[in-house]
Amino acid sequence: MIIRAEDRKQILTPNARGGDGTLDKRDYVLENMPENAKMFAEIKLEPGCSLGTHTHTGEYEVFFFHEGEVTLNDNGTERKMHPGDFAICCDGESHGIANRTDKPASLFAAIIKTK
């Protein structure tokens, strides 16, 4: 299955999950998405933008950071993430992401249902 960049659906979300700024998410929408797949998306964070801390229940989320530097809140511990870094937020865990730099940042995220 192939999804072309131009076929992605852009979703702009102000104050996503209680964060700052407007989150720019570009979903890779699959018509025949596997049953356990909830989301595949590129997320862009402009300077000062953040995704508020939230918990995943019945699912996990994986991230691949590919542009800029962000601060990842990993279950209450903040960590700097750089291009090429990878993170997982397991079922029952929490995370948030903030761009506290003066340059744009982006990452790929996938949410997979566990139940």
What are its keywords?
single chain; 115 residues; mainly beta; six-stranded antiparallel beta sheet; four-stranded antiparallel beta sheet; 10 strands; globular
Task: Give a quick rundown of the structure.
This protein has 115 residues and is an all-beta fold. It is 0% helix and 56% strand. The mean pLDDT is 94.
What does this structure look like?
The protein is mostly beta strands and 115 residues long. The protein has no helices and 10 strands. The chain has strands at residues 9-14, 22-27, 37-45, 50-55, 59-67, 70-74, 77-81, 86-89, 94-98, 105-113. The strands form 2 sheets. A 6-stranded antiparallel beta sheet has the order 1-2-3-10-5-8, with no helix packed on it. A 4-stranded antiparallel beta sheet has the order 4-9-6-7, with no helix packed on it. A hairpin with a 2-residue loop joins strand 6 (70-74) and strand 7 (77-81).
Task: Tally the beta strands.
Answer: 10
Average pLDDT figure: 94
Given the structure, what is the number of helices? 0
Question: How many whole angstroms does the radius of gyration measure?
Answer: 14 Å
Spell the H/E element sequence: EEEEEEEEEE
Instruction: Report the biggest beta sheet as strand number plus sense, adding barrel if it closes.
Output: 6 strands, antiparallel
Structural class: mainly beta
Largest sheet strand order: 1-2-3-10-5-8
